[in-house]
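User: Okay, second chain of the day. Same drill as before: sequence in, structure tokens out.
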Amino acid sequence: MSLAHIDMSQFPEALHRTVRQWCVWREIYLRHTGRRIGLLSSDPESFDYWYAWPPKMATPTELRLGLASNENSYLVAEDGCFYLESEERGSRGRDMTFTNFPDAEKAVLFSLADVARSVNNLDSLDLLWYREGLHPRVTLTNLEPEKEFSQKFGIIVDQEPAYRGWMTQSGATVFSHVVVLTYEELDARLREGVPPGWFTLELVES
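Assistant: Same drill. Structure tokens below.
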């Protein structure tokens, strides 16, 4: 069993589940490197503790999640929407937009877990679901038809009157399989094929 410390008091309660999942899947991610959380440093706020920058509120409306030395992911709340942004070597871009928090929360979980699965040579659901194509309950609308290579496709589930979000066509194809699941169903699906003994992290929250 691994022990890790995290200060949850710095995060809004709505983000606690995402922060916990980052910690869980960070341990899984590190397995392919042979590294263990907390070996290089006893300071859970440091890069060396997690081999990435730990979750932090970059601003009151931006959650930063470290991925590697020069890579971070952000969950941003702005103007009634929720955005997933990526940062690499100081360059930051917006990848996905969601009109509700639960879908954005699922997208973050999927991103964290699927990368951890892939680096450990476990099946990538991103690749699997892309090959399966659009989920039958989901339809896509090109929101930039005037562009030759549109990067904005709206997602509609079960013929709802409003878009759940928008992103690239390939991203929307994969996410169509995520959006139809509950958070709990997605979590269970992402854990399939991962050896149960890998989930050994015990979080000490303050």
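The chain has one domain: 2-205.

User: Thanks, on to the next one.
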